[in-house]
Amino acid sequence: MAVDPVALTADLVRCPSVTPAEGGALQLLEPLLASAGFVCTRVDRSGISNLFARWGRQGANRRFGFNGHTDVVPLGNPADWTVDPFGAEIRDGFLYGRGATDMKSGVAAFVAAAVDFVTETPPDGAILITITGDEEAEAEHGTVALLDWMQANNESMSVCLVGEPTSPNEMGEAMKIGRRGSLTAFFTVHGIQGHSAYPDRAKNPLPAVARLVDRLSSHVLDTGSAHFDPSTLAVVTIDTGNPASNVIPATTRASVNIRFNDLHTGEGLTRWLRDEADAVAAAFGVRVEMMVRISGESFLTPPGPLSDMVAEAIEAETGRRPALSTSGGTSDARFVKNLCPVVEFGLVGRTMHQVDERVSVAQIGQLKAIYGRILRDYFA
User: Which residues contact 31 (CB under 8 A, 6 or more apart)?
Assistant: First the structure.
């Protein structure tokens, strides 16, 4: 009997897997995959739950991979929801619940497609499924742990599809062939505290911070590249915590986030930020500490056989030829790209992370059909 992706999505939504809690989601998926002949291994690390599943022979010539996550972001204020966030209520053709869009429906669709495919038409090759519980948090012990385990155990994928929601408004509008890099820089500017009536006896860090963030936000990083929009820098915090109007503070802090294209590297941007901070420190006579966290480098899977095959399957099922996009935030594709060519395709993501997150019931079935067609075409 075919696996119903809507029912599976509902079952997953009922698992309260707010990151990093497993919530029963992987416990639900593992026996389903095992019953279809997948060899399943839990790859838990540092309290994070992950699942690896392979159907077919290890080291087969063709190894198609799916990647996804079952952890979800926090609810926000539960009172703002009009439904039970973990109730999986279906209303007016939509299934409601935290993770319904991002991305339990995607996981349900590719698991259902893979189980049906190997049951009905066992392929000449292998299908590998990697599911993590650490995508919405720090992402240090999720897909990274799975890839580390795979390398240690001689497991690999020839290609991979990540089931993140990729369509802005209509099913099939877009697929991802790359992602921008993400970097956050944290600055702490140290001056000398003093009385605001005697500024000559103090060293005010606030003008230095104002100059620094102005220099950074006014700088044009680039004008875009062949497959990427221009890189962006956003000032996200300026914090002093000074409640007194007659005190010049000793320190103040600021943070900026950069989303960068393939014209940059995290290392190169870090050097630029350090140079800008040093210039401001010298001009104002203050000391600037800087800490940088690089969440991921920019990457691109060049258009070719993989993106063509996925695009053709999408067009066959939806009537739309998807745009090849690199927009949006980061995803676990930034880790998978070190292993094999990777693309992303999933449902419409308009309500992800929102109150009353919901997904079209019809589109869940459509997504399973697309994934099934991709598998048939790949192994044909």
Answer: none
> Same structural domain for residues 145 and 198?
no
One-letter amino acid at 349 equals: G
d(CA 72, CA 106) in angstroms, rounded, equals 13
Task: For residue 311, give the amino acid letter.
Answer: A
Judge if 136 and 278 occupy the same domain: no
Residues 150 and 51 in one domain: yes
User: Do 139 and 276 sit in the same domain of this protein?
Assistant: no
Q: Report the domain count for the chain.
A: 2
Query: CA angle, 174 as apex, 335 and 347 as ends, to 5°?
Result: 80
> What pLDDT is recorded for position 170?
95
d(CA 41, CA 26): 11
End-to-end CA distance of the chain: 23
3-state SS record for 287-337:
EEEEEEEEEECCEECCCCHHHHHHHHHHHHHHCCCCEEECCCCCCCHHHHC
DSSP 231: P
Pick from 269, 296, 323: which residue ends a domain? 296
Whether residues 224 and 150 fall in one domain? no
Taking each helix axis from N to C end, the angle separating 25-35 and 105-120, rounded to the nearest 10 degrees, works out to: 10
Compute the distance between CA of residue 286 and CA of residue 203 in angstroms, rounded to an integer: 7
Q: CB–CB of 231/263 below 8 Å? A: yes
Active-site residue list = 71, 135
Q: Domain range spanning residue 259?
A: 181-296
Calpha distance 339→301 (Å, rounded): 12
What CA–CA distance (Å, rounded) separates 284 from 209? 10
- For residue 24, is pLDDT > 90? yes
Segment 286-321, tens digit of pLDDT: 999 999 999 999 999 999 999 999 999 999 999 999
Q: 150-174, pLDDT tens digit by residue?
A: 999 999 999 999 999 999 999 999 9
What string of DSSP letters covers 165-192?
--BSSSTTSEEESEE-EEEEEEEEEE-B
The number of beta carbons lying within 10 Å of the beta carbon of residue 238 is 16
